[in-house]
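REQUEST ID: PR-0412
SUBMITTED BY: lab tech R.K.
PRIORITY: routine
TASK: structure prediction, single protein chain
INPUT:
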Amino acid sequence: MNFYPFNDIETISPRPMLFITGDQAHSNEFSEDAYKRSAQPKELYIVPGAGHVDLYDRTDLIAFEKLASFFNANLK
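STATUS: complete
OUTPUT:
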């Protein structure tokens, strides 16, 4: 019951981490916190005008190009 998922987030390094959040998301503080705590390589991408749930099924807001470029660059 005392598990906090970000306690050892820096140990994931050197695996690339991409955090995506909406600028209107109530949960973006968690993405920003995880980003600050994680080691390199990492990237935080903020989707303008998107809330948390918007990034599940609003295909006009989902960052498909960012996902493709990040994975193409980091999965070799």
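NOTES: The CA atoms of residues 40 and 75 lie 15 Å apart.
REVIEWED BY: pending
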